[in-house]
Structures
1.
Amino acid sequence: MKIIREIKENLFDGSPLDHMPEYAQKIWPFFTAQLVVRVFYFFLLYSSIILFQQWDAGMGQKTQISFILPIAWIYAVGFPTGMAAIKIFFIATTLAASLAPQKRIFRVLAFIAVLEFVSLHFSVLQLDVDWYTLILTAFFFIFLPNKWNNPFKFPVIERQKFLVVFWGAQTVNLLTYSMSGIGKIVGAIQQGLIGQVTVFEPKAAALHSADRIITTAGNAPLAPFVIDNYLIVWPFFLALMYLLIFSIFVAFKPRLHRFWGFGLLMFHIANYLSIDIGFHAHTFLACLLFLLSPFAPIKVSVKEIAYDLPIFGVGIRNLVEKEGNKKFSLCLILAIILFFVFFYVVEQNHDKQILEKGLFPLTSNHMQKVKHLNINIGEDLREYFVYSPENFKNPAPVVLVFHGGGGPIGTAELMAQYRKIIDFYR
């Protein structure tokens, strides 16, 4: 019972759900929320036009496509007709939802259009997770009350229903970030058990950047800095992991909404600059739902933000307040220090093993001088890399590296480390 009481005091007491009647009594939380909803549908309208423009040139002739269930009907009409129908439906419904988002029928149709578009995109281009939160948000917005175009005449009880649904959309978005962080923790445990580098170690961000550059031949501006200065990047990388894992708790802490929204914005910018992954829809939605959160106080102090931080907030509060539990705070500080020391030692041990094999620690120089090429083998398009080091002796042997067991080409690079061997013996 004590644990349940602690959870209630730390999560639900002071949360938007706890104070929803008070929010509904005021006009500005509802006004802000309905404005955010309108902007959301305008973004969908903008996306429906821009994204399909990018498709028109190269996708019209595709035929051998395996369509997933929501668009299985395309088999009956053919790809060109099906694509045109989804395009028109997407634009028309998001336009209607933008102009009259207070009508549920338009929100339902907009949700169906987004689902159809993402299904088509997934079937043709294997879309990443960038649009999934937009589907979830569009689904939640279906349950908003009707006829809220005039906020001053909208009944208080209906405002409360509106804000509860809006909070649900915020919460499910934060849940996706937490699921991502927890997935990385589970993966780290599995990697640690077989002796691989985990996300907790100093070189984790550097290896992630290197793998992304190798796999995609990308051009992330900060990747060389991340690789060559991994110790500087390490604390920031761990902070981003913390940001992801505990995102779901922020739904219950309105004073953290804008702070966490800014953190998620920085997370996506860091992703783009270091591994060349944009997640544009995620970035937009994080800014829209949390930087403009209707539940966030107009003014909030640094002290209030620090006190509300998951786990660390308890330690800070106990350390600052006179009657706080100083032992808990000191134990938390000691645990953080031991964490950094332990994984630094683990990292040094991995570097020692690399040197004992006659290889070199990872640097940004090994990510350069690579050609990313393709070749057709029958009906399959294969990709391969050609690495030619500078100042090699001619004639020189050709080293062929093959990988099996599935996995991306970048994984084979990191496992074989052939570039380091070539650089050493050239």
2.
Amino acid sequence: MLQRCSHMKTLRSCGIRLALAAVFLPLFAGSQTFDYYAYTDSLDAWYQEHPELTTGQESGYMFYVRWKEFWRNRVYGSDTTRTGSPALWLEAIGRYHDERDNYTQTPFGSFWNQIGPDYPGEQLSGLVSCVFVDTVSDKTLNTIYIGSNTAGIWKTTNGGQDWFNITDQLGYPNLGIRDITGDPYEPGVLYAASGGNYMDRMDLLHGYGIGILKSWDGGYSWSNILPFVPGFLNQTFRILIDRHDTQRLYALVDSYVFRSVDGGSSWDTIFDSLQRYTDPRDRKYLRDIEMAPSNPDVLYIASDDWTDWHGTAVAEVWKTDNATAENPVWKRLDTLLLKRPDSVHMTTERYELAVSPADPDAVWVICNNKLTSKKMIWKSYDNGDNWHLRFTGWLDAGIDYHRIGLQVSPVDTGRIYCFGI
């Protein structure tokens, strides 16, 4: 490595990379003496003294910032004699790797295998927030993209055996990615929704994003097609491509729906009607969007409602029947779920939606009833005009505000998948 250090800047760069690499010896050994806080204080001071080394791949700065964030929540514990040490976490990971063959089968008989990225001491990506399988450029289904909450986008071209990062060149080492999707007909065209935070909390203190990214070459280069204004728009949650016209895009940005009719070159706002609170710490965000499979004019959107400050949570569900019009008209749907004459709202922090081409006029909604802690799933057979409660009860899947998902089989609407954290 030192042969590459032909001048002083590169020498300092190589020195810091050697220092970063040296930390993993005690990490893998589960050292009781390694002190995360002392180590990061030292490296923070180093970068303050050498700000010129905070840019560029060779400096190791991206590597360090991502490593620091990854371990920050893994070295703190109730055992104060081991605070600052990764030993407890590594012991747990070690047990998992030794015994993971015991955890491949679900209670329903299906089998799952971990395919990576699989580097416990070096893996810096935190939570996997989204997965996109490229079915257009690669009919073998071996090209997969994953987005993380703190480490950008990773790609594999061999079905998960090897992974590489394809967003570090953007200069944001802790880039959060919430959604990845691709053009259903054009190979190599990808869109990524940026924004990430701790445990999916929605307060402005924990989340950030740089905009909506587009790639024309399978993720090897990116353009920011909707840059964010600092302090105003900071997270994109979902991107939806109209399969009837792939130049028409929809994006959920904070509490707004943005629309583009030219592949992302320009955008306009077509929804801004979520309930507002007087306390600036309270805010609802749009979390899910679905299009009726046979009608591009019908869109459904769903919000969250984090309740740190105002108490009662009232997430929202909306629909429009003229999404392609210049000014779409929206109708609120969540007031219809309980079928109460006084239009009582469900007390829930978040809704998620699902549609299926097997029943193009149907739409499904799931939420966690905050008053009873029961999960509730409704189905509408007529594009949201009338609703039928299909399930209420407990699901052992960690389904709540932080992670809640719903998918319906595209060929069999009796097969429904719910998932959480």
